[in-house]
Automatic annotation (TrEMBL):
It comes from Cucumis melo var. makuwa (Oriental melon). One of its GO terms (molecular function) is ATP binding. SMART domains: S_TKc. It catalyses: L-seryl-[protein] + ATP = O-phospho-L-seryl-[protein] + ADP + H(+); L-threonyl-[protein] + ATP = O-phospho-L-threonyl-[protein] + ADP + H(+). The keyword Ligase does not apply. This is non-specific serine/threonine protein kinase. Its EC number is 2.7.11.1. The keyword Isomerase does not apply. GO terms for cellular component: membrane. Gene3D superfamilies: Phosphorylase Kinase, domain 1, Ribonuclease Inhibitor, Transferase(Phosphotransferase) domain 1. Residues 1-17 form the signal peptide. It is found in: Membrane. Its main location: membrane. PROSITE patterns: PROTEIN_KINASE_ATP, PROTEIN_KINASE_DOM, PROTEIN_KINASE_ST.
Amino acid sequence: MGASTHFFSVFFPSALALTLTLLLPLQASDQSGFISLDCGSPEDTMYTEITNNISYVSDAPFVKSGVSESIGSRMGADNAPFPRQMRSLRSFPQGIRNCYNVSIVNGSKYLIRASFLYENYDGLDMLPAFDIYIGNSLWERVNFTDTHLEPSIELIHITSSNEVHMCLINIGNGVPIISSLEFRPLLNTTYQTVSRSLSLQSRFDFGLSDKEEYRYPYDVYDRIWSTVNYYGQEPVTASATTGAVEENNYKVPSIVMKTASTVKDISLNTKNSSEYYVFMHFSEVVELQPNQSRVFNITHNENFFYGPLIPSYLSTLTVSNKDPLNASNLHLFSFISTNNATLPPIINAFEVYYVKDIIELETNQGDVNAITKIKSTYGIKRDWQGDPCVPMKYPWSGLNCSNATAPRIIYLYVQVFYEANILKGWITLIHEKMQNLVYRNLSASGLTGEISSYISNLTMLRTLDLSHNELTGELPEFLTNFPNLRVLILTGNKLTGSVPEVLMQRAEAKSLTLSVGENPDLCTSLKCDNKKNKYLVLIILSTIIAVLLPILMVTLVLYKRRKQREHLKRSIQERLLKSKNQQVHYSEILVITDNLKTSIGEGGFGKVYLGVLSDKIQVAVKLLSASSRQGTKEFKAEAEILTIVHHRNLVSLIGYCDEAENKALIYEFMANGNLRKHLSDSSTTVLSWKQRLQIALDAAQGLEYLHNCCKPPILHRDMKTSNILLNEKMQAKISDFGLSRIFANENDTHLATRPAGTFGYVDPTKKSDVYSFGIVLFELITGKPVIIKSGTGNEIHIVDWAKPLIVEGNSQSIVDQRLEGCIEICSATKFMELALCCTLSTSAQRPDISDVVKQLIKCQEMAQNRTTSHGPPINHNFSYTSIGSDSILSPR
């Protein structure tokens, strides 16, 4: 018998095979090594299925999520035409990944079978589709084609650990379900490949049969053999015999090997582009006479495969390819009798598998131990099951891991997470590109107690977010020991003590983004030693008193003068805030600014100084430069109009100075400066995504009031981040509205009236204000300035830079890196879409500012719907401030 030994392998019966034949059925009879899970059955379930004598138990100990369902509730459990293990199921309506952890024998070969039956259990009549992962690799996509279909998938796999992690992944096409999960140990000498797993395509039993399929107890490995009527086959009438068929290591059931069919060709239509292995099982079932012979060769796509083959009477011979068959749409196996053969070729059984490269990665054990302790400490119950980092495409919510053979946890966001809805059209591309960047930290988890010491074991952490919880105690020193930590967010807790000096120094050096606000009892200064020596305190106090005594006399002398100034300030304040006469003299400007002592900024219209009225009310005084001035009549008319424009998102103009050589505007003071300062790389604070959404909405509502609620409408003409100011509560207000018209300055290049798409801003219309606001939206989500300078010195407008990246699906590259892990997918996607709409080249295509407000409210709601808020809900039903019936400006 000849063969191409490099292309196929043959298994003959032997003494060893006979010995194993005698032993393994005995082991299989008690189902040694079998794991049979009835998914969705009650936790204490244990029974023997009468159709196959297999013992099943509940899957509850192997999975920590899911909902138990039953098809019996819709069909009648006693009359259901399915075996018992298929009458219940477990569905997974919550979370993207839900995983089974099954303990097995490391290094052993297993047949793993998962079965699924929908049977319209939920009454929705919507067939689901979902993915099944083993370790880090996609095993199969389960795609139902019929409500009553009972699909199952099989994998032959050698385990590389003592535990198998099998995860069901929600891909957005219905709720994943599973009916049964089975593990069957195989001999490692069977189904051999080069370190690769095999997924079953088909397994056939040829010849006449009394049943549609055979499995355990006929098959000691519990393979399911389906009878087939292949075109052109003729069942062979077997010789009458009661003897068993002699087995080889594959242990094909005797009842399968006692039937055979003559065959000329077997065609195999492959369902994917994988490589394939076939296993053909032969046994002569006719006791041949001396003048009879059955000898044939096998070809594959007209190329020699194996031969000559002479089946032995009641003895199993298995033929398979040693090397995988290349991917092809059609594989044709032909069985050709030799010239001296008197009987046609036969075949008893046929198996087809396609190659699956299953990679069983495991997260670094130290990180697993640490995150498990953290889960236990804080009682976290979300989808934290299975391996934390595997599959690497779907790690635990709130984690991101390194790309390594033993992945390490590098990001930890201990907050509540909700999966984002996948948007349609080209927005889907944005979602797919961003999901590896954004980690859905939307709201607080209600964690209590001190910061867990187990976090210190996650030595590769780059980002740690424990914000908006109820954590107490001092900041542990181990937070200073993470070599790769780049972002530490502890905002909104009840932490006490002081921030470790090392962290403060790293934050000042900008090697660490540190957010520790909203912790009232936490000191954030480098000098926080509250345990001063009592004697030192006395000495210092004595020294201070000694120094103050000589000064006291001078102070008394100056007191009267200061009271006079305060009286003057009070009169100015009453005139500005309580009357309609809001014009002041330049001498009064000098009083409230202390002779222009403190400059707090400089804009296109002049310098801005800090002013103080009585009761320590602060104001901002803008002195207009010579190039910004116009006639007294026009200035006064326009200024008087602006002083009666009131809205919570507009910086109030509370007074003005109109003298020949000195013109000034007096505004309410905004403690936190302008938005551009907070977005710049030099800012020591990082605006959160929630804050950026609120700032965008505040600014849009202010602009909406100017456009649609003032009569006549007011165009801003100079909408930009430096004209959006923030008060002490981080509420955004628009400043300098209308000034570009009142104080036109030829040198203000940012007001150039060039077409949209070029550098700078555009011609003054409502839609040009909307275009400028779209630029503000891009600055908010990217953190970049309007004009971006490359490393080579080239300049590009932010719109020209961002639009192509978004359209190409590379939107993750435009998101501000300081928001990494802190931005919510759906709201960010809609935010980008809105920015694109606002900056369309044709003004008619741009939305009205009222539509922009509505869309920003939706963005905010997307984020808030995934947030467990500890405060009162934000009220979007605001009303405009009344300014009197005699005003030329009034709300719509």
